[in-house]
Structure formats: C-alpha cells, structure tokens
Amino acid sequence: MSVYDQWHKSRPKPGESKCKCRPAKVPTAAHGKGMRWQVRWRDEAGKEQKLNFENKPAAESKDAQIKASLDRGDYIDPKAGKVTLKVYGQRWRDTLTSPDPSTLMQIDSRLGKWVFGRKISEHTLSALAKTPRLLQAWIREMQDGGLEASTIRGIVMWVSTIFNAAVDDGLIARNPLLVKSVKPPKVVSKDVVPWTLGTVLAVADGLPSRYAEMTYLGAGCGHRQGELFAIAVDDIDFLQRVVHVRRQVRIINGELVFSLPKRDKTRTVPLPDAIGMRLSAHIQQHKPVRVTLPWRTPAGDPHTAELLFTTEDGRALNRNDFNRLWRSSRVVAGVPATRENGMHVLRHTAASAWLAEGVDIRTVAEYLGHDDPGFTLRVYSHLMPNAAERARKAMNAFFEGVADVSCALDVPSGHSV
C-alpha cells in the first residue's frame, strides 16, 4: 500500500523540465487536474483498488485505515457502500418471503411511503453509516408527519434490518441505527380499560340481532375481530363447553380470505354457560351459512366453513363494512368513538374478567393466543388483583392463631420490633 502523487513523476527522465511547484518536480499529464493524491492497495481478493484525495494527510490517514483493516480481517471496500438506501432496500425487499401476505403488504406500504418515497433513501449506505444524524432527522420527519411512536419504531426496525443485511454483505462497517445518538420515539403505553358488563350489553343491543352475540362471544372468550367473523358452528363444543379458535377472515389485496389465527396459533377457550346459551339461541334464530373463501391468499385453495355471523345475503363479513355498524352501536350506547373502543376492547374485557377471578397469567396468554406470557403481563398487569393485599392475606392465614408479637417477645417500653 502506498500514497502516490498524481501530479508529479516519481521516476522522471533526465533533462525533463520541472514545474513551478515547491519543491520543483517533473509534472505528469494530469498536473493541476483533479485530486492530486492517490491511495493504492490490493483487497483481500488481490484486486487493485484506488481512492483519490485532495491533500496528502487525508490520503495517508485512509492508507493507514485500510492497512489496519486488512491486517485485522475486517476490511470493507470503501466503494461498496456507494449504492443508495433506496436501491439496496428494494433489492432486500425482493428477497423477502413470508407465509403471511399481509406482512409483506404492510412492509411495502410503510417502506414505500416513509422510506423509499423520502429524501433519506437517496443517500448512499456509506453516507448514512458515517452520518447517523441524517437518520435522526428522518425519524423526526415521521413524527412531524403524525405517525404514532409504535409505527415509527416498526419502520425503523425494518430499515435497521436492511442496514444489518448491508453489514453482512460487506457494504458498510456498522448499522447507523444502532448508535446511541439515533433514538426512535418511546412508546408511551396506556393502560387498557375493559368494558363493564353494562357497556357490553348496551353495545350488543345497538347492533342488528344477527351480530349481537359477537359482542358477548368476544367479551367472554377473547376473540379478535377476524376470528369472530370466522367462527363456525363446529367450532362450538357445547358438550365440553369450549370454543375452538381455528381461523380468521382477513383482507388480502382487497379480497376476503380465510387463514389461521394470528401467528398461526389455534387455541381452545372455555365457553361460559351464559354465552353458550346465547349462541344456541342465535343458531336457532339465524341459521349458520356455508361460506367458501380462498385459504390464506386470493389464489389459495377454497376453504368452506359454516359461519355463525354473515351478511344478510350470506357472505363473510368485511371489517371495513362492519366497523361502521360497530361505530353506530357505540353511539347508541353512549360509548366514545375512540380507537380504544374498537372491537379489540372485547379481548381486554375477557382478560380482565379472567384475571379478576385469579386465572394465572400464562393461562390467560394461552386463551388470548399470545406467544409470550410476558407480553400479556405487561399489557394487563394493572388489571390483576392487588399483589400487596393478596400477600397480606396469605401471611395472615399463615400466622393465624399466633399471639401478639410484642407480648410474646416482652418488648421493653418505648421500643418497637
């Protein structure tokens, strides 16, 4: 490795005229044109590489850096990171596969609008790796655009994955989203507020009769909205008093499909007696309808289920249409039309009732279809019975019948134990 002066000959011929530089040297044909100093080296594959610099100290510094990285074995081609984030990110996206089409749809939507459609994606990977403040400014741009903190953190996670891939490919030396100066917004968690029985009754009464029992089923067994839309008559085991959650209705590329529940987790949930009786009456009044939809994707194999809840003309429910009914039923019931009062609140209500009666957190997580009981604990810990009071009752029971401690120990006057 060496630093070369491109403006002057290193081996001039005798008699060649010199330039007016100090010290005077024999000029090359490139004298006075472009950057004067050039670093030359051979990479790990033996291929000669070159970089030009305006001044000699900068060239010597780069020469030393490259030599050290080659010696350590962590050499990165300085030219490799010249690809833009947009170009490399789209290559990364093209390699993605997922059994869940909606995941890819969400990635395309979010990255297309907030990354590839923004100025940040026009910077090269190497520029972003060296200038993390550009990424912090991009995060601030998303905040100013009104995105929620949780959404921003999801987008940052995907872009961080792109940078990790670039590191693995040897294009950059570090992931700039992992440095301390880049900080996505913190998600300020709000305590979920379950509905009271009175609210459940009022909202159910505000729905058309063919849909009212969905409210009870969601609040009694913790179904998600799409899972409620996909409940079939053979999912209800009245004899064993359980409900099997086996499928959901989703929208993929604008079309309704059946698929497994979220994260492909089927589950079995206890069926409360009161809900069982209401579902039995519902089945008598509104006969289940055989509905056939493609499985998982619009091009998937046909799957048929005898659904409890359908449109009046016997089609599977579409959340975009049903949410209007849900909104109007809340208005009738006097429930604020906020995001917190979407159908997901029924799951919170079920979790609240289970925890209030002492069902352990791992079992609640299983009934809700959560992978991680720790997540369930974080979301619903404030709904659990007061731990201090439970601990006090446990110790009172343990020490029941023990005499007054101060008397038993003969504590001196003026002292405490």
Would you mind describing this structure in some detail?
This protein has 3 domains: 2-75, no CATH class; 82-178, Tyrosine recombinase, N-terminal domain (DNA polymerase, domain 1), CATH 1.10.150; 197-383, Intergrase catalytic core (hpI Integrase, Chain A). The longest helix is centred in the middle third of the chain and has 20 residues, at 149-168. Helix 8 packs across helix 12 and helix 13 (361-368) packs across helix 14 (373-380). It is elongated, with a radius of gyration of 33 Å. The chain has 417 residues and is α+β, with helices and mostly antiparallel strands. It is 43% helix and 12% strand. The chain has helices at residues 56-72, 85-94, 101-114, 125-130, 133-144, 149-168, 197-206, 209-221, 225-229, 273-285, 319-333, 345-356, 361-368, 373-380, 387-398, 405-408; strands at residues 2-5, 37-42, 48-53, 236-237, 242-245, 248-252, 255-259, 267-270, 289-294, 302-307. The protein is built from 16 helices and 10 strands. A 3-stranded antiparallel sheet has the order 1-2-3, covered by helices on one side. It has a 3-stranded antiparallel sheet with strand order 4-5-8.
List the helices and strands and how they pair.
Layout: E1 2-5, E2 37-42, E3 48-53, H1 56-72, H2 85-94, H3 101-114, H4 125-130, H5 133-144, H6 149-168, H7 197-206, H8 209-221, H9 225-229, E4 236-237, E5 242-245, E6 248-252, E7 255-259, E8 267-270, H10 273-285, E9 289-294, E10 302-307, H11 319-333, H12 345-356, H13 361-368, H14 373-380, H15 387-398, H16 405-408
Antiparallel strand pairs: 1-2, 2-3, 4-5, 5-8, 6-7, 9-10
